[in-house]
Task: structure prediction
Amino acid sequence: MSLKHLTIGVVLAVCTFAAPVAAQKNELSGSLGRIFISDRGIIGAPSFDPNLRYGKGLTFEINYARRLMDGPFWSIVGEIPFVANLDEDIHAAQNVVPGDYSTIFVTPSARLNLFPEQGVTPWVSFGGGFSHFGENPKLEFGGTNPFKGGNTTGVLQLGIGLDVKLIGRFRVRGEARDFWAGMPKFNVNTTSSRQHNILVAGGIVFRF
Result:
């Protein structure tokens, strides 16, 4: 066997064994869950019903991540969670708020994975980005919402989760994320200018 053929064979062998390792640096996941938001007090609301009350909107998340750094029992991952809740119901005693609104969160984050190559991988995530709220142009009980153009605010994201190996490159994910964002424009003054949007979701992760 010539040196040329031997060199080609070694290169092909290295590429063959290295490819699966390199392929595991990326993740694409999809999750489905609900967002939970605590009631908010309305300044000047009637005493019998003083709060702004939220539903529990069905929410989906698409997440791309790439491994940036490896340690003996951990890895640092850069991720971009894209979270959308297209129908979040709200209610107030007076006809001053829209019946529902939509929410989008985009929060580039750093994630710490523990035991990333094992069957069970717990993780924590922290980052920030923006949220956009699109209020319904109609008020809850009829009429026009004066704040129907939507608004965009900054948001901080804190998350915890657990990935469990399923088969091959697929894993099952359970997660909870808190998106601490500004308030949508509801045509009322509330007792807080920001709100916690708690996402509880589950889904599938594909590593490649």
Notes: The chain has a mean pLDDT of 87. The radius of gyration is 23 Å. The domain at 25-207 is CATH 2.40.160.20 (Porin). Residues 173 and 197 are 19 Å apart (CA to CA).
